[in-house]
């Protein structure tokens, strides 16, 4: 969690079902590699940066407990793309639930836009979970949201 990062710290947030793609022949030559170097040197300006995220998920309206295992295995797969603040200064940020229940990054209790990191992508493959894993992830997210 953010509180574990220590001072001074930049955090990169990835879920267990996500893959970060930011490599070339030499990863240090990527845009993200430059951000990491500047963060280590403490010369990186700003407090948070967004990374494009491509998510593949199952098309389903409702919550995990609302679907049985047979129906889960036959749901169509959809994808979406957007940007989320995933690289940020830990001491200036906090996660909190939004109106939709999903945690979002806030700076001094204000949701703000972040600068993008070009040529970097997170692939989120939610649809590859088993039904049991899908149910467990939902329970974990609910417990996490309840603590905030």
Please give a handful of descriptors for the protein shown:
148 residues; alpha+beta; two-stranded antiparallel ribbon; 3 helices
What would you say about this model in short?
With 148 residues, this protein is an alpha+beta fold. The protein has helices spanning 31-40, 69-73, 131-146; strands spanning 10-12, 18-21, 48-58, 77-89, 93-97, 103-107, 115-125.
Report on this structure.
This protein has 148 residues and is an alpha+beta fold. The protein has one domain. Helices cover 21% and strands 35% of the residues. It contains three helices and seven strands, in the order ββαβαββββα. The chain has helices at 31-40, 69-73, 131-146, and strands spanning 10-12, 18-21, 48-58, 77-89, 93-97, 103-107, 115-125. A five-stranded mixed beta sheet has the order 1-4-3-7-2. It has a two-stranded antiparallel sheet with strand order 5-6. The longest helix is centred in the last third of the chain and has 16 residues, at 131-146. The radius of gyration is 17 Å and the shape is elongated.
List the SSEs and their pairings.
Layout: E1 10-12, E2 18-21, H1 31-40, E3 48-58, H2 69-73, E4 77-89, E5 93-97, E6 103-107, E7 115-125, H3 131-146
Parallel strand pairs: 3-7
Antiparallel strand pairs: 1-4, 2-7, 3-4, 5-6
